[in-house]
Structures are given as structure tokens and as C-alpha cells.
Amino acid sequence: MLNEFNPCPKPTKVDKKLKPYMKKRPKKTKKTNPLKQEIYKGRTIPTKQQRGKITTAQYNEAARQHGYECYVCGCQTSLEAHHVKFRGNSGRGGWRNIRFLCSEHHRGNYSPHQNEALRKEIEALHEELHGSHYFCDKYDLFKLGLIPNTDDKSFEKYFEERMS
């Protein structure tokens, strides 16, 4: 029989009662980062990521207003919602900032992400249709002092007045 080398004794079971130095730590809970939450004039402003998302309601309104077809070729299959003003440039997920493109024209070499002339053309069209703040949401207009409140009624009234 070979001698086994055991420099440490075998582990023993710990009593159910924990010793003071073995207290369980509370589980970490996921907290929202207070730095991400912006408060402006007493109102909590959602994060840029939340404001850039396209909701189903915004998607459907864009389809109703701009037509459910590719802006470039007019096809009605495999359409994707394109942010006219990119999210990285403060473009929001509102229907005024959405234009439909087929997957070929949204991701290919002729996409607005690659072709600056097409991007500028679509931006100019939306500025003509909806005014210079077409890419803003109600929080942007409120922070700019263009609307008195962050409600939808004030937001829509602002665009109606500009386009009439």
C-alpha cells in the first residue's frame, strides 16, 4: 500500500449555525445607475437608448404617414425601419424620424449608412415634411424650451403649428 501525502486534514462539515466571520453577504441587486437618469426641471428624462427605440405604435404611424414601401426602389418586401437622423447623432425613435428601406438598400453598399448623398437626400426630405426638429422627441423639445411640458399634446401641437 502506498502512503498518501495529505498535508491538510480532510475538510469537515460546517455547522448549520454560521460563525460570526462566516456571515452570508446579501445578494447584490441590480440598481439603476443614478448617473444615467437625467433630471431636468423636475422631470426624469429617459436614457438615450430608451428614446432611440422604435415602438410598435411609432412603426405603424410611420407606415401610415410615409407609406409601407422602400424609399429607394418602392418594393414592399423585407422592409426595415431606418432612423433618418442616426441615433448616434441624437436621432430618436419617433415616426417623423423613420423611413422604410428594403433590407438590400438598408444594409447594402447603396445604404444611407454608406452613401452620404442618399442620407442627405432623406434628411432634406424629412426636414421639408416635418420641420427642422423632425428627429427630436418631446424631451428634446422641452429641454430646448420649445414646448412647455413633456406631454404628447404639447409635442404634437408644436409640429402642427410649424407645418401650417
Give a summary of the structure in a few sentences.
The chain has 6 helices and 4 strands, in the order ββααββαααα. By secondary structure, the protein is of the alpha+beta class.
Explain the overall architecture.
With 164 residues, this protein is an alpha+beta fold. It has one domain. It is built from 6 helices and 4 strands, in the order ββααββαααα. It has helices at residues 48-52, 56-66, 103-107, 116-130, 138-143, 152-163; strands spanning 38-40, 43-45, 79-83, 98-102. The protein has a two-stranded antiparallel sheet. Strands 3-4 form a two-stranded antiparallel ribbon. A hairpin with a 2-residue loop joins strand 1 (38-40) and strand 2 (43-45).
Which helices and strands, and how do they pair?
Blueprint (H helix, E strand, L loop, with lengths): L37 E3 L2 E3 L2 H5 L3 H11 L12 E5 L14 E5 H5 L8 H15 L7 H6 L8 H12 L1
Antiparallel strand pairs: 1-2, 3-4
Task: Supply the key terms.
two-stranded antiparallel ribbon; 33% helix; single chain; alpha+beta; 6 helices
The description of the largest β-sheet is: 2 strands, antiparallel
Tally of contiguous helical segments = 6
> What's the helical proportion of residues?
25-40%
Strand sequence of the main sheet, in spatial order?
1-2
Tally of distinct domains: 1
What string, H for helix and E for strand, traces the elements in order?
Answer: EEHHEEHHHH
- What class, by secondary structure content? alpha+beta
Rg is 27 Å
Instruction: Please state the overall shape, judged from the principal axes of the Cα atoms.
Output: elongated
- Determine the mean pLDDT: 83
What gap, in angstroms, lies between the N and C termini?
99 Å
Number of strands: 4
Strand content: 5-15%
Low-pLDDT segments, ≥5 res: none
